[in-house]
Design a protein that fits this description.
single chain; alpha/beta; Rossmann fold; 5-stranded parallel sheet; two-stranded antiparallel ribbon; 50% helix; 19% strand; globular; binds adenosine-5'-diphosphate; binds manganese (II) ion
Amino acid sequence: MRSKPNILVTGTPGTGKTTTSSALAEATHLRHINIGDLVKDKKLHDGWDDQLQCYIINEDLVCDELEDIMEEGGIIVDYHGCDFFPERWFDRVVVLRTETSVLYDRLSKRGYAGAKLTNNIECEIFQELLEEAKESYKEEIVVAMKSDTVEDMNRNVSEITEWVSSWSSTA
Ligand code: ADP
Ligand code: MN
């Protein structure tokens, strides 16, 4: 049994995973691991995908890299995918959701255009990450949270922080 919980924060790019996870890490003193950064820094990839403009993640290398620290607990994992992590790693899976028009503006501002923009918008419209999370983890640990406004984010961080406190006291 871990003394601190592990949380996965997932969702379509632009829904606020990194912003929410860093605020949550500050509030809970859990450690935030951004998988995108980890993949880049530790070269846990099979090269660059020119078409998708991103690294080709090597899922086995990522899981090997994280196994020991996940076992210890107290980790917030931030990634726009969730089906390749071992199910036993997580005590809570948070899926951030954002209104299409809001997400469109955020991703455009980030410089996404063309197919990359359309693909991500469709990913959100079709709730792909929520479905993936429900297929990969027990339904009772998966929570969808609205992330349209700063107020939404603050509320999400408070709710999860409260959950972390109660988890620690019952463990
Ligand atoms: P992700 O990590 O999911 O790709 P980010 O955390 O990088 O998303 O957020 C993308 C952009 O949207 C950032 O500019 C961030 O400040 C903004 N943002 C994220 N969540 C919210 C929110 N709930 N309300 C308002 N702006 C947000
Ligand atoms: Mn991010």
